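Honest question from a wet-lab person: if I give you the sequences of every part of a complex, can you actually get the arrangement of the whole thing, not just the pieces? Trying it with mine:
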Amino acid sequence: MSLFSALYESRWLLVCATLVAYLVYKVWVYRRLSAFKGPFGSGWSELWHSATTISTDAHAKYKEACDKYGPIARVGPNDLVTCSVELLTHMSAARSPYSRSVWFARGTRTRPGEDHLFSETNENIHTRRRQQMAMGYSGKENLELEDTVDVYIKKLIQLIRTKYLSTPDSAQPFDFGQKAQYLAVDVINDVGLGAPLGDLDTDSDQFRYIETTEAGMKLGRLSVSLGLVFLLQSPWIARLFGSSGKDGLRFAWPLRHARARINERLRHDTEKRSDMLASFVRHGLTAEELVNESILQLVAGSDTTSTAIRSIFLYLLTHPCVYAALQAEIDAAVADGTAPPAPGIISETAARSLPYLQACIKEGMRVHAPAGSPFPKRVPDGGDTVVVDGKPVFLPGGTNVSVAMFALQLNKGIFGDDAQEFRPERWLLEKDEKKLAVMNRTHDLIFGYGKYQCLGKPIALMEINKAMFEVSSVIFSWVRAKD
Ligand code: HEM
Ligand SMILES: *[C@@H]1O[C@H](CO)[C@@H](O)[C@H](O)[C@H]1NC(C)=O
Ligand SMILES: *[C@@H]1O[C@H](CO)[C@@H](O)[C@H](O)[C@H]1NC(C)=O
Ligand SMILES: *[C@@H]1O[C@H](CO)[C@@H](O)[C@H](O)[C@H]1NC(C)=O
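Yes, you can. This is the full assembly:
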C-alpha cells in the first residue's frame, strides 16, 4: 500500500523520467548513424521507411535516396541503403562476418517458425544447407535440366503458334507477360518437383498458383512494413489462412502440392533420376526439409525469371533499332545452322555465342533488375570500417544495410550519362577494358554475391536465353509472313 501511494505521489516524476529516458534513447539511436544523410525524419522514426516499403516503388525511392544522399544513405533509424559495389561485395563475401538481417526471416518465411535457405538468418545453418543444395542447383547433378527447359520452351512456342499468331484477316492480341509466367512456373515445378502444373498445356494459371504466390508476396510486404509479422507468423493465424500446410484456405495449396509430390518421389524413383530433388536427397535433406525448400524455390524461381523475360521483351519491342539488329543476328544464326530448324530449340551454348542477344539480355536485366528487394545484411556486433570511394566509413554493429539495386544498375558513374537508357551496344562498344570489367562486376550483383549469391542463376539464365531466342524467332517469322 505504502509503495503504491509512494508511486502515486511521484507519478509526474515517473512520467518525466520515462519521457527523458525515451528521448535520450531516441537521440542515441539518431546519433549512431548521423554520419549518413537521408530523407527528412528518417533518422528519428520508421515512418518514411514503412511508407516506402508499403508502396510498390520502394526500389525507386531507394534509388532517389542514393542519388541524393550518396552511396550510403540513411532510410530509417537503424537502416541504411547502398549502391556501393565495394560495400555490397564486402558484406556478402565468402567469409564476411555480416549476416542476413531479420528481414529475411520476417518477410520470406512460408511457414511459421520454420526456415528455408533464403529465410535462414543463422550463418552456420545457412552455410551447411547451401552446401547441401548447391550441386542440385548447379546442373552438375541435374543432368536433365536443359532437356526439361526445352520441353517447356517448345510448349510456349506451340501455344503462340497455334493460338495467338495474328494473320492479315484476324488479329490475336495476347498478354505475353502472362505466358512468360506460365513458362517459368511450369519449368520450376518440373525442375524442382518433377511435376509441371500444366499452365502452358491448358493456357491458364493452374490451381491459381500464380495468383496465390502473388497474394502471398503482397501480404508478406504489407506485414513486414506494418510490423505485423508476429501476427502472420503466429501458428494460430497461419492455421486460419492455411499457410501451416494443414487444411485450410488458398495459401495451403502450393504447400500441399509440394508435399504430395515430394512424398511420391521419395517412395518411388529418386534413385533413378538425376534431377534437383534427387541431388538434395543424396546430400541428406529430409522430406520435411525438402518441403521447406521447395516453396522457396517455386517463389524465388518463377517471379524473378518471368519478370526478366517480360522486361527484356518490353525494351526490345519499344526499341525498333535494337529489334532490327537482333532480328538480323537471329536470322543469320538460323541460316548458318547455329540454331536448329523449327521445332528444334537452340542450345544454351549456341545462344551464348550470339553477342547481340547476350547484350540485349544483359541490358534488359540491367535497366529493370528482376529482383529489386532490399535483401538487408546486418553489420557484425562491434561495427565495421569499410572503404567506400576511397574514404573509410564506420558502420555501427547491428545496423541493417540494404541494396539499392536500381541506383546500382542505373549508376551514371559506372554506365555513363545515359545509364537510364536501354542501349545493348554499351556492352559491345566499350573499348576501355577496366571500365567494362567494372560494368560486368556491377551487373553480376543483380544475382547477389558470394555466400548469398542466387543459386538459381544457371537455371534462370538458361530459361531466359532460350526464351529470348525462340520467342523472338516466332515473332519475326510472323512479321515476315505478314509482309
Ligand atoms: C532472373 C532471375 C533471378 C534473379 C534476378 C535472382 C536474384 C537473387 C538474388 C539477388 C539473391 C540473393 C539475395 C541476397 O543477397 O541475400 C537470390 C538468392 C536466391 N535465389 Fe535467385 N534470382 C533469380 C532466379 C532464381 C531461380 C530461377 C531460382 C531457383 C530455381 C532462384 C533461387 C534462389 C535461391 C535458392 C537463393 C538463396 C541463396 C542463399 O540463400 O544462399 N533464383 N536470387
Ligand atoms: C533493422 O534492424 C532492427 C533492429 O535489429 C529491426 O528491428 C528492424 O526491423 C530492421 N529493419 C529491417 C528492414 O530489417
Ligand atoms: C524445416 O522443417 C523442419 C520440420 O518441420 C523444421 O524442423 C526445420 O527447422 C525447418 N527448417 C530447416 C532450415 O530445416
Ligand atoms: C565482361 O563479361 C563478358 C560476358 O558477359 C565477357 O565476355 C567479357 O570478357 C567481360 N569483360 C571484362 C573486361 O571483364
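Two things worth pointing out. The chain has a mean pLDDT of 86. The chain has 24 helices and seven strands.
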